[in-house]
């Protein structure tokens, strides 16, 4: 998993409440359990005018010109501004996979669905909860200024604006530690491989019958 320390990027809007995971990555793309290949179909039903299918070439598909991610001013965006209850719906981990592969490193919203919020941390995407009034102010500034960028500093837990404003955010200490160091659940487990082996050896000696294969 990629670490997250400090990131500066163009902000793009998802200006609607209750965006669910089926809107983030539609159900027809969930057949794969690989973490790659979902970015081109992020917000598929909003980005394109036709229905997307797995393996379909997106290069010739008709674009929805009214959708922000198809607007030239938001190309290369890596910070997503969203409204309340972002990521609601089913618990598919494909949603943060798609956001990450598209290029979003941080998502700022007044609130997130719990499971989606947890899944983001496991995949190197930083979900940031800010007061609704602050988020509204960021939306206004972003719409007024083309190329509006935000800086996220995880160590100091601050979102910095071009105007010099600083907005603090809360984050669990353990999740912060994992993101700063790029630790996912697998890498955390592997860090304890020597201790795990020592425990297994001790257990095998103390209770050998547990390791006897049944014929």
CATH topology: Aconitase, domain 4
Q: Quote the beta fraction.
A: 5-15%
> What is the string of SSEs from the N terminus onward?
EHHEHEHEHEEEHHH
Strand order of the largest sheet: 4-3-2-1-5-6-7
Average of per-residue pLDDT values: 93
End-to-end gap: 41 Å
CATH class wording: Alpha Beta
Please, could you describe this protein's structure?
It is a single chain. This protein has 215 residues and is α/β, with parallel strands linked by helices. The chain has one domain (6-183): Alpha-Beta Barrel (Aconitase, domain 4). It has helices at 21-24, 44-47, 94-102, 114-122, 132-144, 173-181, 185-190, 193-206; strands spanning 6-14, 79-82, 106-109, 126-129, 149-153, 158-160, 166-168. Strands 4-3-2-1-5-6-7 form a 7-stranded mixed sheet. The longest helix is centred in the C-terminal third of the chain and has 14 residues, at 193-206. The model has no long low-confidence stretch (mean pLDDT 93).
């Amino acid at each position: 998993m990629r670490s997250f320390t400090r990131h500066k990027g163009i902000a793009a809007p998802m200006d609607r409440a209750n965006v669910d995971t089926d809107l983030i990555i539609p159900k027809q793309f969930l057949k794969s359990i690989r973490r790659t290949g979902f970015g081109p179909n992020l917000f598929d039903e909003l980005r394109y005018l036709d229905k997307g299918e797995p393996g379909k070439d997106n290069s010739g598909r008709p674009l929805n010109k009214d959708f922000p991610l198809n607007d030239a001013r938001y190309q290369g965006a890596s910070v997503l501004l969203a409204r309340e209850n972002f990521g609601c719906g089913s618990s598919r981990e494909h949603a943060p996979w798609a956001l990450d592969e598209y290029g979003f490193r941080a998502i700022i919203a007044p609130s997130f669905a719990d499971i989606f919020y947890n899944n983001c941390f496991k995949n190197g995407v930083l979900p940031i909860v800010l007061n609704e009034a602050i988020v509204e102010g960021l939306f206004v500034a972003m719409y007024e200024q083309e190329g509006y960028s935000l800086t996220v500093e995880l160590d100091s837990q601050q979102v910095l604006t071009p105007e010099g404003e600083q907005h603090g955010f809360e984050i669990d200490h353990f999740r912060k530690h994992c993101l700063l160091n790029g630790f996912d659940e697998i890498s955390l487990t592997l860090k304890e491989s020597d201790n795990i082996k020592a425990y297994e050896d001790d257990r095998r000696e103390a209770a050998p019958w547990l390791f006897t294969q049944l014929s």
